[in-house]
Amino acid sequence: MLKTLGAQIKEFKKDSILTPVFMIGEVIMETIIPLLMASIIDNGVTAGNMKHIYLIGVLMVGTAVLSLVFGILGGQFGSRASTGFARNLRRAMYENIQTFSFSNIDKFSTSGLVTRLTTDVTNMQNAYQMILRMCMRAPTSLICAMAMSFIISPRLASVYLVAVVLLAVVLGFIVTQATKHFNQAFPKYDALNESVQENVSAIRVVKAYVREDYEVEKFKTASNNIYKIFCKAESIVIWNNPVMNFTVYTCILTISWLGAHMIVQNTLTTGQLMNMLTYCMNILMSLMMLSMIFVMMTMSLASARRICEVLEEKADLHNPEEPIMEVRDGSITFDHVSFSYKREASDPVLKDINLDIRSGETIGIIGGTGSAKSSLVNLISRLYDVTEGKLSVGGVDVRNYDMESLRNQVSVVLQNNVLFSGTILENLRWGDKDATEEECRYACEMACADEFIQKMPEGYNTYIEQGGTNVSGGQKQRLCIARALLKKPKVLILDDSTSAVDTATDAKIRKAFAEAIPGTTKLIIAQRISSVEHADRIIVMNEGQIDGFGTHEELLENNEIYREVYDAQMSGSGDFDE
Prior knowledge:
The protein is an alpha/beta fold. It has helices spanning 2-6, 13-45, 50-99, 102-105, 110-152, 154-201, 203-208, 212-237, 240-264, 270-312, 373-378, 403-409, 424-428, 437-446, 450-454, 473-485, 503-516, 552-558, 560-570, and strands spanning 332-339, 350-357, 362-367, 388-393, 396-397, 410-413, 422-423, 463-464, 491-495, 521-526, 537-542, 545-550. The strands form three sheets. A six-stranded mixed sheet has the order 6-9-10-3-11-12. Strands 2-1-4-5 form a four-stranded antiparallel sheet, with no helix packed on it. Strands 7-8 form a two-stranded antiparallel sheet. The protein is elongated, with a radius of gyration of 35 Å.
């Protein structure tokens, strides 16, 4: 874990080294000041030597100024190092997430990733700054003050030693008990973020079903869970202050009483007693800082583990050593392919799939819910790897391709269409960042999107809200199809992507595909037989297996499932699930 996190310090190593150096310098200056003060009292005030008072006074001012400068520089470099460390952590996590395959992403919830990128990184930033500053300052101050105390008076310094041991035991117990509660808090943050994310993204549904009160109550529950855990933790941590104050005042009273007797006996000077009282405060405040450091470190350890889980997660899919960069054509071959989302699963999602699709064919894929239609097409662009068998595109095993080159030639319009905040043109250019407006317009004409775009006040410069909330479901689907067409792919996969458009528009889109991209292999997943009956061939999926594969006429004659659903849909009732 330390190695993983330490690798993100990178260009802030210099700041990370200079911060503790300046903190040590500040502590040394603070340790010298009581000695100078004692000298003023013993050799200046008591002896009536004004020259000595002025001389030592100037030295004290100089020492204080140096302490201030060291403190400022330590704070400046520490802030730069900690904020830079946090920036690198977020960047590294985000970049690693972008390499994840679908199976990697399945391990983390969306809200969990958001919490790790925000709350957990902020905790690490605060902890790192505390490590660089307080973790160096507190022990150094404790050691210096204790050393000077024993030099001045071993008898009085033994009081500190007893107090330090007792305080360390008590504070250790407090930190240990508080740790248990802090470790429980961060998973609750995931639940809180999930509640907020769901509510904001689905606010229209919430209002449509008048579920505001339910959502507010759900948020209150998630928020109260965090509140209760932190209250329990803080109710233990607050004992730090009373225990510390009791120890400090007990030490001051004990040292004052013993020191007064020693002054009367001429075994201690007044200046030395003041020194001892100052060092008493330094020692005990250092212990207080150390206890707070332990609490912060305890909180950050949970965050550190969660961050490392993301940073150390390795993508399941990798490019081969010498990847093939060009996809020859859109032919697709499934050779005894089986697939499971989890390798250890006993029942695979896809079972012994054998298919041979020629380049340029239009293939319909139809089947009931859960028949693994989407799983089948997800393998083609290598969003997942096959568990058994071999899948080839353009005559080459997909595992031998450069993944970026393969995915650029296999364009997928998924079931859940996503548009990003920005203009229509900006969204379309996700398909081809260098596409001209004319090319975008042509793609939209093929997808039957141009007609509604022209009616918008700003046409292709119309701003799309995040998630495409200001366009209808059918308009969103057509924009996503146009975006996929701009990639000029050799394989085009439409995963139930015309479900929100009417049958007439669906027919227009299919006709445009046949005329404009005849050389592109088209795989169309649909629930309506009318959407695929004109395909060259149709795959009928049933429980992860191919129940039938042929033309519309062949399936009507030979496939019982297809024939029953066709009859039901033609009579105006029934679908594959029924």
